Amino acid sequence: MSEGDPEIARAAIFEIIENQIEAGTPPETQRTLKRLMAEGRSEEEAMKLIGCVVTTVIFGMLKEGKAYDEAAYIKALLALPRLPWE
């Protein structure tokens, strides 16, 4: 069984983030991207940090059967660069 291509997974996660920014839902996604970049991170690094939050949410939904919790997602975004598992 193949473990998959990490670049495909990364592109999918980045697409989720880009869609959130384009739709403005939640607005905290774009605000977090801008904040992280203002703190000196590159756009790529900021996207990866936000991607960690997206991945954690998806993992929780799939593995633990949790429903999407936007308030928890926003809270994790606002806590960046501290990662959800820290």
Explain how this protein is built.
Helix 1 crosses helix 3 and helix 2 packs across helix 3. The protein is globular, with a radius of gyration of 13 Å. The protein has one domain (17-79). It is built from 4 helices and no strands. The chain is mainly alpha-helical. The mean pLDDT is 94.
List keywords for this structure.
globular; mainly alpha
The residue fraction in helices comes out at: over 70%
Report mean pLDDT, rounded to a whole number: 94
Q: What is the ordering of alpha helices and beta strands?
A: HHHH
Number of strands: 0
In the residues, how many domains can be counted?
1
Give the count of helical stretches: 4
Distance, first to last CA: 31 Å
Give the C-alpha Rg.
Answer: 13 Å
Assembly form of the protein: single chain
The percent range for strand residues is under 5%
Provide a brief overview of the structure.
About 70% of the residues lie in helices and about 0% in strands.
Question: Layout of helices and strands, plus pairs?
Answer:
Elements: H1 6-23, H2 27-38, H3 43-64, H4 70-79
Helix pairs in contact: 1-3, 2-3
